[in-house]
Amino acid sequence: MLNTSVAGINFKSCVMNAAVPKALDLESLKVLTNSQSSAVLIKSCTVDARPGNEEPRYIEEANLTLNSIGLANFGYKVYLDYVKELSELTDKPLFISVSGFNVDEYVEIVKAFQASDVALIELNLSCPNVNYGVVMGYDVQLIKELLTAVSGLGEKPIGVKLPPYLNVNLQKEVADCLNQTEVDFITTINTLGGGLLIDAEKEMVKMKAGNGFGGVAGDAVKPIALGNVRRFFQWCPQIPIIGVGGISSGVDVFEFILAGASLVQIGSCFMREDIDCFQRINQEFQQIVDQKGYRSLDDFKGKLQLYS
Ligand code: DHB
After folding, report:
1. Could you point out which of 180, 242, 250, 295 has its C-alpha 20 to 30 Å from the C-alpha of 257?
2. pTM attached to this predicted model
């Protein structure tokens, strides 16, 4: 299997889990340590425990999912204990995803995990389902303030999980901002916020949480994810990229690496297929790599060609 590295951390394959509801309780995380996911990422924790939104809060359709979990989690201190336990079970790099409602909360949580056994810290700047849908990653000043506040708290690499940018001017401003700060990796994209699914027969929204509104993910968002990966790869050449959004096959992984990702995360497909997806996707990806005769990721990473 082709290995990869992000911010100096090595991964045995290019495929790992994304921050999905299944990556939150200790049993599921233990199962992930025994899977072919090359890392174990724990879904976003906050300072205080949160029950999250009322069910239904996760909907699966043919080619997309909609969610408004509302950052359900047990509070970050519980995950410090989980990390201790998980690190004894596995050599895989552990990621913690961190969410705060203000800069001070991010600082409190990052400080705690800098002194833990996680390998990397992913700052979630893009949950669309709390705070009336206000997303930190759409505010360049806030990004700058946050990254300045969390730098110097420890040695572990810190990355940002960004929302999808449909406004290319804003994406360029964010890219410039990231180039001026000490961010160690970019994870892109989070869900497309503000989606709505309707049951025409009942004339009703399909999801109770969020009054029906939520983040759209799955196959349908793949072109937006690829576009966001490619732009950041071009504009932030020094920052490794973790691609996420609509990946469910080896071909999808290959496309994301061509676009410039160093590693990819599997969200909706992991929710649908459970941990078996990692083995299948790794196998499909390896087959493509072998057929093409590539020996390392650098043989094709970012080398997407223009139409000719
Ligand atoms: C939730 C959804 C997201 O897309 C995200 O990045 C973080 C949290 C949620 O609803 O819990």
Report:
1. 180
2. 0.98
